[in-house]
């Protein structure tokens, strides 16, 4: 089965200098860079996803802003496609599915941000489209959440998402395990 790598929203906005800094983003990007390099050497097509807001008054991922740009460490090269999305789900109102089909991709490896939002949405949508999916947990990042006075640390948010993926959506592996096997 031909594999494709989907790199979701590793944008400047998520850095400590951005408007929505994520817990562990630097480590996740370093791991993502290893995975992307491996894909390029192995002939695995890489698909970059970039969130962009173009509605007036947007606070984050503003079209044309530095924050909306993909981080340099994981930036696309050559003819690697960049899918620009306006919604949480990278398949919604984009040509991601068509790009995957054009490359005859039959299974996906997913990395990026945020674990509890865009990674969740793309994984579930991909599985609904019958793609086997592997998520590389340490090449993903998220943030602390609060709901009705309960604060959930970023590590717990991330672990809950990875557990949900593993429970019913696909395979969850570490980058070292993926690259070593």
Count of the domains:
1
Mean pLDDT: 96
CATH superfamily assignment? Isochorismatase-like
Q: Count of DSSP E strands?
A: 8
The CATH architecture category equals 3-Layer(aba) Sandwich
Biggest beta sheet attributes? 6 strands, parallel
Regions with little confidence, pLDDT below 50 for 5+ residues: none
Number of helices: 5
Helix content, binned percent: 25-40%
Please write the CATH class name: Alpha Beta
- Could you tell me the CATH topology label: Rossmann fold
Radius of gyration: 15 Å
Element-level helix/strand string: EHEEHEHEEEHEH
Descriptive account of the structure:
Residues 5-144 form the Isochorismatase-like domain. By secondary structure, this protein is α/β, with parallel strands linked by helices. The chain has a single domain, classed as Isochorismatase-like (Rossmann fold, 3-Layer(aba) Sandwich). 33% of the residues lie in helices and 23% in strands. It is built from five helices and eight strands. The protein has helices spanning 25-42, 96-102, 115-128, 154-168, 175-180; strands at residues 3-8, 46-51, 82-85, 107-113, 133-141, 145-147, 150-152, 171-173. Strands 3-2-1-4-5-8 form a six-stranded parallel beta sheet. It has a two-stranded antiparallel ribbon with strand order 6-7. The two termini are 16 Å apart. 38% of the residues are buried.
Task: Furnish the topology, listing elements before pairings.
Blueprint: E1 3-8, H1 25-42, E2 46-51, E3 82-85, H2 96-102, E4 107-113, H3 115-128, E5 133-141, E6 145-147, E7 150-152, H4 154-168, E8 171-173, H5 175-180
Parallel strand pairs: 1-2, 1-4, 2-3, 4-5, 5-8
Antiparallel strand pairs: 6-7
Helix pairs in contact: 3-4
Protein name: Nicotinamidase-related amidase
InterPro entries: Isochorismatase-like_dom, Isochorismatase-like_hydrls, Isochorismatase-like_sf
Pfam families: Isochorismatase
